[in-house]
């Protein structure tokens, strides 16, 4: 079957409305589940790959993995079919956008914003790690922001059980900018592999760039075998030393020197946030995302239920990037390295550095205030 058109029906139940996004092997559509009378997203495999066992296995693996996992910080999968002429996943409809789109709109994030994004992503990843699953493709494109501003981890197409994650082919699997050294040299993978990729995401959130580059994809991939990830503060001014330390612990070249998994990374992030007295923050929605534009278009299906106000929340600007009052930290955890680093900083220095960056970087200080933050 060629590209689906508005009004086409999958498995006699899901009525196609319009495409949201296209990738190399699939297209995501907004559609209506006529049985439950709700809007969902259908990720439909490109017909060119219907006879490709590798892609079929990837699709099936994603469905099985996500069916095992249920959490607000994970994109929900409701249904899967590989029996007819269409192979598809039915997923939760995300009306906000991707972290990639948010970065493209607003540029590097101040520490408190980056921390909140990472907190949501790591919370979702920890659910997968609890099941012994290695995601293998952590990157901003696979981190989504729901209409309620919840950060959600998506796309488990490359997931593997940690016990089965040694590479068995000569191909590098993953996205070059975010893969860990062991994904390049063929060493066994572990939960720490995802930690490295998450550390690269943190680096990009803080600086607006990825740490390595290369003339070719292979050169880009090989760079992480010879070089450590540089401190984010070496790329952009105002990054607190504790975030340099956090990034270094996540992206150590030797997996044994990293956080062991998402839980440990999350604990360290919370320690840093408390030590720096970072405020609570609501992650904004990208206003120019593909999902946002599609959500703003009236559906072509005449019997779609009326959209309630909560579902169009993404049309409003919600959170300005202004520095609010910082609450006192509350933590019962301590990390010697982080404590030593904290002693090197004074509250005044941190306030000047972080404050100066807030108002001088990207668009994170100039969004009109429409709703006052509750902190």
Automatic annotation (TrEMBL):
<keyword id="KW-0808">Transferase</keyword>
<protein>
    <recommendedName>
        <fullName>non-specific serine/threonine protein kinase</fullName>
        <ecNumber>2.7.11.1</ecNumber>
    </recommendedName>
</protein>
<keyword id="KW-1133">Transmembrane helix</keyword>
<keyword id="KW-0472">Membrane</keyword>
<feature type="transmembrane region" description="Helical">
    <location>
        <begin position="338"/>
        <end position="359"/>
    </location>
</feature>
<dbReference type="InterPro" id="IPR000719">
    <property type="entry name" value="Prot_kinase_dom"/>
</dbReference>
<dbReference type="InterPro" id="IPR008271">
    <property type="entry name" value="Ser/Thr_kinase_AS"/>
</dbReference>
<dbReference type="GO" id="GO:0004674">
    <property type="term" value="F:protein serine/threonine kinase activity"/>
</dbReference>
<feature type="domain" description="Protein kinase">
    <location>
        <begin position="14"/>
        <end position="283"/>
    </location>
</feature>
<dbReference type="InterPro" id="IPR011009">
    <property type="entry name" value="Kinase-like_dom_sf"/>
</dbReference>
<keyword id="KW-0812">Transmembrane</keyword>
<dbReference type="GO" id="GO:0005524">
    <property type="term" value="F:ATP binding"/>
</dbReference>
<dbReference type="Pfam" id="PF00069">
    <property type="entry name" value="Pkinase"/>
</dbReference>
<keyword id="KW-0547">Nucleotide-binding</keyword>
<keyword id="KW-0067">ATP-binding</keyword>
<keyword id="KW-0723">Serine/threonine-protein kinase</keyword>
<keyword id="KW-0418">Kinase</keyword>
């Amino acid at each position: 079957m060629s590209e689906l058109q508005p009004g086409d029906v999958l498995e006699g139940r899901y009525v196609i409305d319009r495409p949201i996004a296209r990738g190399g092997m699939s297209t995501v559509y907004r559609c209506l589940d006529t049985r439950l009378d709700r809007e969902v997203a259908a990720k439909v495999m490109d017909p060119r790959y219907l006879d490709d066992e590798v892609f079929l296995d990837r699709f099936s693996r994603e469905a099985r993995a996500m069916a095992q996992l249920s959490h607000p910080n994970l994109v929900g999968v409701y249904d899967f079919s590989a029996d007819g002429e269409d192979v598809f996943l039915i997923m939760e409809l995300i009306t906000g956008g991707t972290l990639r789109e948010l970065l493209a709109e607003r540029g590097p994030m101040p520490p408190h914003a980056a921390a909140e994004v990472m907190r949501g992503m790591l919370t979702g990843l920890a659910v997968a790690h609890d099941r012994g699953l290695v995601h293998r493709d952590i990157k901003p494109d696979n981190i989504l922001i729901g209409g309620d501003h919840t950060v959600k981890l998506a796309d488990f197409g490359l997931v593997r059980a940690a016990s089965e994650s040694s590479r068995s082919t000569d191909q590098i699997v993953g996205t070059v900018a975010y893969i860990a050294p062991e994904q390049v040299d063929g060493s066994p993978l572990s939960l720490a592999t995802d930690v490295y990729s998450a550390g690269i995401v943190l680096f990009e959130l803080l600086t607006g760039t990825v740490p390595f580059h290369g003339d070719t994809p292979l050169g880009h991939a090989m760079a992480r075998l010879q070089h450590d990830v540089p401190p984010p503060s070496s790329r952009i001014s105002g990054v607190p030393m504790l975030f340099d330390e956090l990034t270094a612990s996540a992206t150590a070249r030797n997996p044994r020197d990293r956080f062991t998994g998402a839980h440990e990374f999350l604990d360290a992030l919370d320690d840093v946030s408390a030590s720096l007295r970072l405020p609570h923050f609501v992650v904004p929605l990208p206003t120019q995302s593909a999902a946002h534009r599609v959500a703003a278009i009236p559906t072509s299906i005449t019997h779609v239920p009326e959209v309630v106000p909560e579902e169009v929340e993404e049309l409003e600007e919600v959170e300005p990037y202004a520095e609010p009052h910082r609450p006192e930290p509350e933590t019962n955890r301590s990390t010697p390295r982080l404590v030593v680093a904290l002693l090197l900083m004074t509250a005044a220095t941190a306030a000047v550095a972080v404050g100066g960056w807030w108002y001088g970087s990207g668009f994170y200080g100039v969004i009109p205030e429409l709703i006052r933050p509750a902190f």
